[in-house]
Amino acid sequence: MSHAIQDRPVTAAPQRGPLAHARLPRWTPAAIAAGSIAGGIGIGAAAGWHSKVQWGLLAALLFVLVTFAVTTKVEGSRQAKDRVATSLVWVSFVLAVVPLLSLAWVTISKGLNVLDGYFLTHSMNGVLDAEAGGGVYHALLGTIEQVGIATLIAAPIGLLTAVYLVEYGGGKLSQAVTFFVDVMTGIPSIVAGLFILATWNLMLGFGPSGFAGAMALAILMVPVVVRSTEEMLKLVPNELREASLALGIPKWRTILKVVLPTAIGGITTGVMLAVARITGETAPVLLLVFGTKLINPNPFEGAQSSLPLYVYEQYAVGTDAAVARAWAAALVLIAFVMILNLVARGIARWKAPKTGR
After folding, report:
1. Distance (Å, rounded) from C-alpha 350 to C-alpha 338?
2. What share of the chain is helix, strand, coil (3-state, %, to 5)?
3. What is the b/e burial string over 240-258, where b = at least 16 CB atoms within 10 angstroms of the residue's CB?
4. Taking the CA of residue 46 as centre, how many other CA atoms within 13 Å lie in the half-sphere pointing to its CB?
5. What are the b/e assignments for 58-94, b being 16+ CB within 10 Å?
6. Of 174, 175, 153, 179, nearest to 164 (Cα)?
7. What is the pLDDT confidence band of residue 357, given thresholds at 50, 70 and 90?
8. Could you tell me the CA-to-CA distances from 208 to 24, 89, 301 in Å, in that order?
9. In this predicted model, what pLDDT tens digit does every residue of 142-158 receive, in sequence order?
């Protein structure tokens, strides 16, 4: 038997390829991006394209194609697919950010020509639309009051509705509420304004006021708050609920002390998304608030103005002074929404449950 073992031929071990494959340098994506931009500009200029959007789209296409070709040559097809997916994500991000930055730049560059302390503290009382001067104080005050009242109406309703759907719902009533929330999500703003006009103004006999506009804005705000809050509550782990209930804490107190504080960040973000949506609405304000050049601090009586309506009115005039005021008011509107978001983020971080030891 020992001779049989000795006579058995010895086979060589199989040769294995190297574990480490060739890798592109870390600066390769930046170099490809720079070359693609140069190529897009060069090809676009040679082809007689005057639109910079066309140049940008061509550069994005070149970036993806060159990335795939170079990565396939050096690293293989598998890694090339991964890099192409990453490149598409970056290209999509850039395509989304560029219009936003362009809008912000144009608004800031045109709005700063008029925006000053006088513009923020004076109204259009006694100033013709075609003349220079005047301010946006009456419209800013109206926007703050109308958006604030709409938020006070819509946020509690939306929050309680979402809590019911997630924590208590499950029957036919829950299905009906979900259906109507989905329907309300697609309601045009003019329809909400017409509904309040028909009920509050025509049937009940009330005149134009900031409160009427706020009710229409609240209708638009409720479904956004419900949907965003519902998704945030679903992300709260059930283990937290079960641990609280296991200690004998009632369900309502578990929701109040455990579930809502855990999801407070996402809930606040959803509310701010809804606020950002209604802040720029013009149609309900035009129908229900009417607009005025005077300062009216009472949202429950008399016509008011708002920033979107002010921008529309001034831009419709068409003179240089009026268009300049429109750009300045648009800049104030953007700053107003941004400040609200920053304040809401700070409150959410302050009220969020603390982690760590």
Report:
1. 18
2. 75, 0, 25
3. ebeebeeeeeeeeebbeeb
4. 7
5. bbbebbbebbbebbbeebeeebbeebbeebeeebeee
6. 174
7. very low
8. 66, 48, 7
9. 999 999 999 999 999 99
Q: How many residues does the chain have?
A: 357
Q: Which of 275, 182, 172 minimizes the C-alpha distance to 226?
A: 182
Q: What is the largest CA-CA distance in the chain?
A: 118
Residue 169 CA: distances (Å) to CA of 159, 196, 357: 14, 29, 36
Structure token digits, residue 131: 């003349």
pLDDT in tens, 37-79: 888 888 888 888 877 778 888 888 888 888 888 888 887 888 8
Cα–Cα distance for residue pair 266/229, rounded to 1 Å: 7
Nearest to 305 by CA among 286, 325, 333: 286
Residue among 210, 255, 252, 226 at smallest CA distance from 154: 226
- Measured from the Cβ of residue 183, the count of other Cβ atoms closer than 10 Å reads 10
C-alpha distances in Å from residue 230, one per residue of 218, 264, 321? 18, 12, 46
The DSSP symbol for 304 reads: B
Q: Give the separation between CA 328 and CA 113, rounded to whole angstroms.
A: 8
**pTM, whole model, 2 decimals?**
0.78
Handedness of CA 155, 156, 161, 162 (dihedral sign): positive
